[in-house]
Amino acid sequence: LKLIRSGEMITVIKGYNPRADKEVLAAQRKQTSSKSKGKVFFARDQLENLRKIEGERVEASRMKMMEMEVK
After folding, report:
1. Where are the alpha helices (DSSP H) in 2-43?
2. pLDDT digits (tens, 9 = 90+) for 5-44
3. What is the greatest pairwise CA distance in the chain?
4. Are 26 and 32 in contact (CB under 8 A)?
5. How far is the C-alpha of 67 from the C-alpha of 58, rounded, in Å?
6. Is residue 32 within 8 Å of 39, Cβ to Cβ?
7. Nearest 10 degrees: CA dihedral of 19, 25, 31, 34?
8. CA 67 → CA 6, 47, 53, 59, 63, distances in Å?
């Protein structure tokens, strides 16, 4: 199936096994998920800053919807 996806010609097809493709895909997903476990993408202060900014955006949006003057 990898050859078909890349656009190459296949000379002999003995049969297609979709279960084999599913097993390969599941194995790849397990590898990527196990690699990403334990990684920290943002520091705590960055998350707090992002949370603060998001709160300000929500507040500004609500004020606009109520036709109030945005700070």
Report:
1. 2-6, 18-36
2. 788 876 666 777 888 889 999 998 888 766 666 666 788 9
3. 70
4. no
5. 14
6. no
7. -90
8. 54, 30, 21, 12, 6
Beta carbons within 8 Å of 10's beta carbon, 6+ residues apart: 3, 4
How many other CB atoms are found less than 10 A from the CB of residue 63?
13
Cα–Cα dist 16/14, whole Å? 7
Q: Which letter, b or e, does each residue of 5-21 get, where b requires 16 or more Cβ atoms within 10 Å of its Cβ? A: eeeeeeeeeeeeeeeee
Q: Residue 67 region, left (φ>0) first, then alpha (ψ -120 to 50), else beta?
A: left
Structure tokens at 68: 């109030």
- Inter-CA distances, 19 with 14, 15, 32, Å: 15, 12, 20
Whole-prediction pTM value?
Answer: 0.43
